Amino acid sequence: MGRAGDVPAAPDEKRWSGPGSAAGNLALGAGRAICTHMAQNDTPNALISLTVNGEPHRIAAGSTIADLVAQIGLDPAKVAVEHNAEIAPRSTLADVTLCEGDILEIVHFVGGG
After folding, report:
1. Residue 61 and residue 18: Cα distance in Å, rounded?
2. pLDDT tens digit string along 45-56?
3. From the centroid of its chain, how far is CA 43?
4. Cα dist. 92→4, 13, 50, 77, 95 in Å?
5. Paired strand residues for 60
6. Residues in CB range of 76: below 8 A, 6 or more apart
7. How far is CA 16 from CA 34, 58, 84, 85, 90, in A?
8. How far apart are CA 51 and CA 112, in angstroms?
């Protein structure tokens, strides 16, 4: 059972409570995790708290991994992202909505010699 206020998973969705998830906040649908509720304060300007490369970070509720990568000044085409202990394929960065308590590790590629 989830916590009070959790949205039940649709019949074709599975609950996921993996490392770093705010247990009960995610459902797996269409092959990716989605937040079942954003932040405790669902106002348009609500912020959620994440851990990015071991440091606390806040971003607007409803943001995607691609939004976060751009916000910190990196090119989404030149990064590798681990999202809650799972590698996030680059092709999905704009589709994965971040949730309260998510943990991300982001590395970027640097050219040169």
Report:
1. 20
2. 799 999 999 999
3. 19
4. 30, 18, 19, 11, 5
5. 47
6. 65, 66, 69, 70, 90, 93, 94
7. 10, 22, 11, 13, 21
8. 29
pLDDT in tens, 26-49: 444 444 455 654 444 456 679 999
Q: Residue 95 has which token pair?
A: 């589709």
In this structure, what token pair is assigned to residue 105?
């590790």
Instruction: Read off the amino acid at residue 84.
Output: N
Structure tokens at 86: 């799972």
For the entire predicted model, the pTM comes to 0.65
Q: 99, 22 in Cβ contact below 8 A?
A: yes
Estimate to the nearest angstrom the gap between the alpha carbon of 62 and the chain centroid: 9
Distance CA 78, CA 111 (A): 10
Q: H or E element: which one contains 57?
A: strand 55-60
The length of the chain in residues reads: 113
